[in-house]
Amino acid sequence: MLTEQNKIVLNETSQPHSSSAVQAELLAKVPDDLYIPPDALEVILDTFEGPLDLLLYLIRRKNLDILDIPVAQITVQYIQYIEVMQNFRFDLAGEYLVMAAMLAEIKSRMLIPRENEVEDEEDPRAELVRRLQEYERFKQAAQDIDDLPRMSRDTFTVSAEPPEMERQKPLPEVDLREVLLALADVIVRADKFAHHHIQLEPLSTREKMTHILIRLSEIEGGFLPFVSLFKIEEGRLGVVVSFLALLELIKDSLVEIVQTEDEGHIHVKARSGATAALVSFESDMRTSGPTVTESVDQGLLF
Amino acid sequence: MDINQLKRIIEGMLLAAGQPIAVERIQQLFHIDERPVRSDIMDALTQIRQECADRGFELIEVASGYRFQIRQELSPWISRLWEEKPQKYSRALLETLALIAYQQPITRGEIEQVRGVAVSTSIIKTLLEREWVRVVGHREVPGRPAIYATTHKFLDYFNLMSLDQLPTLAEIRELSDENLRLDLENTKVNESSEELETESVSLDSSEGQKLEEREPEND
Amino acid sequence: MDINQLKRIIEGMLLAAGQPIAVERIQQLFHIDERPVRSDIMDALTQIRQECADRGFELIEVASGYRFQIRQELSPWISRLWEEKPQKYSRALLETLALIAYQQPITRGEIEQVRGVAVSTSIIKTLLEREWVRVVGHREVPGRPAIYATTHKFLDYFNLMSLDQLPTLAEIRELSDENLRLDLENTKVNESSEELETESVSLDSSEGQKLEEREPEND
User: How far away is chain B from the Cα of C5, in angstroms, using its nearest Cα?
Assistant: First the structure.
């Protein structure tokens, strides 16, 4: 892609468009001298951006006003150029010939004497003059754009070495609503699947279950005195919730109640043992696939 | 060439090059008939360095020459220029998180049972890394699966004092219906997803109200 | 945040980005809890611009925002950093670009009509690849030709803030007796005013010279 582009640009830049002095000199010679080196002609033809450009050159060279072109004179010159080019078997763009025909037509119309000056009769040159001017203004605009201060030629981008950076990947933001909607979806799916509705237990109980498990996991030996699970500050409701949580944990076979001697202290013990709870999730990684246990059906969903 | 012009040119060279330039190279970039001596270049560099003292960039010397470098202390701001947009969490992750929140303590197998599909290891890993979820024990069944529960960080992130403040199931069902309605409306208007996002944010503020309204129920 | 720190950060951002940054983007690069208001950023930019007055680079505004760039008068030295000469563009390409810039939105056929020759596909391709022009639609005529328009990158490249800043197009004079008379009287005045216009747009001082060199062609 790049090389192709470069090639194109190279070809195009070989035109001496920027130095008008050279251009004028070269062209001035052509019609007079009969011998023109073929490669010089190639340059000349390439110099013109089409018939309008050539025509404009002829007009400007003779210092003529574009609004009052002596069509006969210009046509002769234009056709001279075309002939020279054709003599060298140049693959002349069709547009050049069309222009020659157009000039000839205008010339012939100009020759017809205007008998009665009808007001709305248009000058046969009008269309050509309009096109020449239109083309010329954009030829000029192209030059103006080329003269604008431009990156990598007149000015350059500036940059400095960035400091060392921790390229942190920002964590996704989550809206609580998204979480809840996700749950709603699961519930709807599970309802259809299981023929009966999921009932969620009070979250306070669930939370308390987690708290008890965390406490057990943090105590060496995994034993906690039964009474330590209850706090007066929690009030009656709090105590009830704690008790329900404990029952739930027992039902789930997550904890067990231990009483070593009659009327002795009751202890709560994690079924999995204290250290197991601290094992990293790595061990969980190995147990892939659903691990359905009995307790699921009892305690979890229904 | 006076020192000011020399400074300007060297400054321009260093900034345009975008890489370190050796003093010799700087010298060579001047035409032979105006080429400054080495000591002049060194003087100019010293002055440039001093003039940058209070700016966002500094002149430093590295193995291959001198270069401008943006000050290290600006890295928090500069790094944001290249910051990737955070990706969104998958539906599967959100479902898993919701189930852990509502059904904790829970094993991966139990989550899978409710969701009806396997929970990928990466989801669990992400939740653990984000410290929204932790392992609170292991179930005493074959494979000793980990039991997951949410953390304080989870509550903090979602601005909750306790799990109690999460909506009840009935409210969630309502939410689901409401969302369905919203979705339908939005499809009609054919609004962009961006606008949808904004909408969910504004709705979220009404969420707080609901939560407050619900509180007596739990007492 | 005090203005000096703000200046340093913005300076660092502009140097690190290596391309124009819009004021809004600068704002967004600050964390929400320290985000400066627009007017503070504008103040900082003004101060930065002033402080660069005597340096090798300057702060300028183009279509896509603010950027630092090397002062034009330093280009003789800076351009020596690179082996290749700055790219030149063919007249065919420049004329095509001019037509798109001034007459947009425009089709290839319309360009060809004005230029009187076919526009080569490679020119269009180059312009599209440089991202100076883009296809903004298709005209609902047989063949559904693409409609072209210029981009922000085009303006950035040519140091323009908007299309308004393009040099003024020459007037088209009507071919009528009245105009003809007027024209003959004013030929000289017209020419000099045209020259002035062009000159006022291009800030480059060397521009005037170029114009003079070009004049014989127009006479």
Answer: 8
Percent of chain C with pLDDT over 70: 79
The pLDDT assigned to A31 comes to: 47
Alpha-carbon span C119 to A275, nearest angstrom: 79
Q: How many domains are there within chain B?
A: 3
Query: Residue B159: which CATH number?
Result: 1.10.10.10
Which DSSP letter does residue C36 get? P
**Closest approach of C144 to chain A, Cα-based (Å):** 24
pLDDT one-digit tens code per residue, B66-105: 999 999 999 889 888 887 777 888 989 999 999 999 988 8
Residue A281 at interface with chain B, using a CB cutoff of 8 Å: yes
Q: In this structure, are strands B65-70 and B57-62 parallel, antiparallel, or unpaired? A: antiparallel
Rg (CA), chain A: 47
Domain that holds residue B155: 91-163
Name the pTM for this structure. 0.62
Q: Which chains touch B (3+ CB pairs under 8 A)?
A: A, C
Taking CA–CA distances from C78, the nearest residue in chain B reads: B13
For A51, other C-beta atoms within 10 Å of its C-beta total 27
- C201 in a domain, yes or no? yes
Residues C150 and C198 in one domain: no
In 3-state terms, what secondary structure has residue C21?
strand
Query: Are C44 and C103 within one domain?
Result: no
Q: Is residue B133 part of a domain?
A: yes
Contact A69/C at CB under 8 A: no
Distance from CA of A112 to the nearest CA of C (A): 19
What are the tens digits of pLDDT across the range A80-123?
888 877 776 566 668 888 888 889 888 888 877 666 555 556 77
- Do B14 and B71 lie in one domain? The reply is yes
Whether residue B134 lies inside any domain: the answer is yes
Q: Are C48 and C112 within one domain?
A: no
Closest C-alpha among B104, B102, B154 to residue B128: B154
